[in-house]
Specification:
Elements (H helix, E strand, L loop, with lengths): L1 H20 L7 H8 L5 H21 L18 H14 L8 H12 L6
Helix pairs in contact: 2-4, 2-5
Length: about 120
């Protein structure tokens, strides 16, 4: 029984090591822009809205106001979601050097340029 447990422990460790070395694909800017282009299927639209909303929500949730000044400031009333996503698609198409970069970082950069915070 101890041998079986030892073998299972070794296999579990090897499996964990293999998973740690596995490269996890990251959604590229080009892929996100392609999914977000209108007109989109209901599935593509849902994915696009969910992904872009999650990026912005993560920015809001992880930015500590006393340690990191905000760099994205959306004034209310905010523009329509489809308008902002359409602007992102145009931005991605116009900036082909970002095509292969991770979509989340490029989308945050786009939001920072589109919704800059007022200088104090």
């Amino acid at each position: 029984m101890k041998k079986v447990l030892s073998i299972l422990a070794i296999l579990a460790a090897f499996s964990g090591l293999a998973q740690a070395q596995e490269k996890i694909p990251v959604l590229s800017t080009q892929e996100l822009a392609k999914v977000c282009k209108l007109p989109a299927s209901p599935e593509s639209r849902s994915f696009c809205i969910g992904y872009t909303t999650a990026i912005y929500d993560t920015y809001l949730a992880t930015r500590h106001p006393q340690r990191a000044k905000p760099y994205i400031c959306v004034k209310q009333p905010a523009p329509a979601r489809d308008e902002v996503i359409g602007e992102f698609v145009k931005f991605a198409d116009a900036n082909q050097q970002t095509a292969g970069k991770p979509a989340a970082g490029v989308f945050l950069g786009f939001l920072a340029a589109r919704f800059p915070c007022a200088r104090k």
